[in-house]
Amino acid sequence: MSKEKLVLLKEADITNNCPECFNQDMKITFKQKHKYGKLYDRTTNEVTHTIKCNKCESIIYPVNWTDDIERIFNYYQKMVKPEKASIRFTSLFYILVISLLVILGAVIYLWQSGIIQF
User: Fold this and answer.
1) If we measure between CA atoms, which residue out of 60, 74, 5 comes closest to residue 27?
2) Does a structural domain hold residue 100?
3) What is the pLDDT of residue 1?
4) Sign of CA dihedral 73, 76, 81, 83
5) Model pLDDT for residues 50-85, shown as the tens digit of each residue
6) 19-23, long-range: CB within 8 Å, 24+ apart, which pairs?
7) Rounded to whole angstroms, how far apart are CA atoms 12 and 69?
8) Of 9, 11, 43, 86, which sits with the fewest C-beta atoms within 10 Å of its C-beta?
9) CA 85, 91, 92, 98 torsion: positive or negative?
10) Measured CA distances, 12 to 5, 66, 69 (Å)
11) How many other CB atoms are there within 10 angstroms of residue 87's CB atom?
C-alpha cells in the first residue's frame, strides 16, 4: 500500500476580506500530491489549494470567493511551479531486479552446461 503525502509548494498571506468574519488576515496554500511505496516514489500532477482565514479558522471554498479573492488566487496560481510528474524507483526495486537477473543467468548457465535438465 502506498502512502500519499501533500508537499507544500507555496504559502502566502493575503489581505482580502474574509467572507465569514470580514477580517483581512487570510492564508493561501498550494500543495502537490506525492505517493510513496516500497518499490517507487511517484510525483503526481495533482495540485491542491486552500484559502483559510487566520482569525475565524474557516476554510474559504470557491463558492464563497469574492472577485478580489478570485483575482488573488489566479495570480498566485500562475506563480506556483509544481514539480514534473515523475517516478523514482527505490533501492529495493533495483535489488530485486538485479537478484532476478542473477538467478536467471545462473539457471541458464547451469542448463547450458548440462548440470540441470528440464
Assistant:
1) 60
2) no
3) 67
4) negative
5) 999 988 888 999 998 889 999 999 999 999 999 999
6) 19/60, 19/64, 19/65, 19/66, 19/69, 20/53, 20/56, 20/58, 20/60, 20/64, 21/53, 21/55, 21/56, 21/58, 23/53, 23/54, 23/55, 23/56
7) 13
8) 86
9) positive
10) 20, 18, 13
11) 12
Task: Count up the domains in the chain and report the number.
Answer: 1
Q: Does residue 40 lie in a domain region?
A: yes
Whether 52 maps to a domain, the answer reads yes
- Residue 51 falls inside a structural domain: yes
CA dihedral over 106, 112, 113, 117, signed as positive or negative? positive
Residue with cell 537478484: 99
pTM higher than the cut 0.85: no
